[in-house]
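Q: Got a minute? One more chain.
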Amino acid sequence: MSYQIDPDVLQRVAAKVAGLTTDTDEIVMHAVELLADAYPHLIDPGPGRWVGSKAGGVLGKVRFLYFSAREYVVIFGSPTGTQGFSGRYKHVDIHKFLLAGRIDSYDLESDETRPLPSLLPGESTCLQRGHARGLTIAPGSWHIEYGRGAVVTTLPFAMVDTLVMSLELESVRRSTAEFTALLRRRLRR
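A: Always. Here it is, folded:
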């Protein structure tokens, strides 16, 4: 099965922008430009729309960059910090490439009582299929998130908390509009 996105490219982008500046807007903008340079047929470097997202209690902002049935790429983060549940995806691996800030996590099923090593700018981690973590995202943390597998199976987790627990219909509407725009763009090519 071939994929369009190479995690090694995402890792290089994160390493390149980490520590360039403390201005997170600049970091995100530069990361999107580098991703668009690497994948001009998939990622639009133009200004995107941020959408509120709450999944597993993790509240933040997401910018959708690429979405297909088998892969997605987003920028996610929070200016003030957040914590919650990673989700458990049976059919998708979730990679995180930290651009700024810090993410602390722990394995929910492990007999280990210590946290996993902190994720720092320029570093990456992968939540393997079927695993789950508790996590804390420090204030000012932003990362590239890449999902690989049966992406549609992630949508209930990504939307239900926002819709049912928060009753935040506008964020669900905006997310749906962003998914639709990305899919239309793919179909036009």
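A: The mean pLDDT is 87.
Q: Perfect, thanks.
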